[in-house]
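dude i think i finally got it to work??
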Amino acid sequence: MTSPTDYGHLRAELDGLTTEAFRPELAEIDRRSTLDIARTMNAEDATVPAAVAERLPEIAAAIDALAARMAHGGRLIYAGAGTAGRLGVLDASECPPTFNTDPSEVLGLIAGGPTAMVTAVEGAEDSKELAAEDLTAVKLTDEDTVVGISASGRTPYAIGAVEHARSLGALTIGLSCNAGSALAAAAEHGIEIVVGPELLTGSTRLKAGTAQKLVLNMISTLTMIRLGKTYGNLMVDVRASNEKLRARSRRIVALATGAGDREIETALSSTDGEVKNAILTLLGGVDAPTAARLLDAADGHLRAALEAARPH
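look at this
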């Protein structure tokens, strides 16, 4: 059972966090009109991208290190509790349909397991040991990258994940929203997006959550660009698993090649619906087996495969 002394220590910690600060000027916000509150909240949200912009060099350095690991077979593993954990799981779950990654390549771990995605699991975030157990369960290796996510930067689960990963030689990134955080200190790459106190005191699903979502978007998207999962700004590794994505596949091939509908259908049919391969057959003037071979030799980078297909 937690003693009053422990609670006093925890309260002192929270009092020192920017994300937990009380804003007297908003003490009577509940007496304002709905439109006025909405304007205030919108103005708060508008400050988040600027806070992210201040940390772009650190974000880019972390992404370059991550992409280098993934290019050699490493995985990207997010770890967090509560909102932070849910954002990591969300980002991981969107990689397979967007970039045709295997579900095992980008993982999201949340304190308390899958149940915690929709229901709070009390106490799970307070355990460093649980984080180590979760990473052991997914067979963490020194080729992988672990991104600990915590708005406060003091969540034991996120810190424990980074500490355990670093002890095994894995690359570690700590994403928080407070300066001088324990999470950033524990990680090889610390990223601190200081967005300031929230509209609702301590509700870090607001600005802090938005900041984390923006950074996670960058981490996954830019890493996949570096890994050759795109051609320009086209998602050429998209997995056509439903009608909307099949239509998107055809549109991507059209945008990349300027080919007509009949040519596109023929190209996609010959490549079993693989968008990247279809583009290469059309722009490189090669057949489907050759396209597959060239892409394999280029580690999936379409630009490099095109260079190899075109006579010099």
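The two ends are 74 Å apart (CA to CA).
im so relieved honestly
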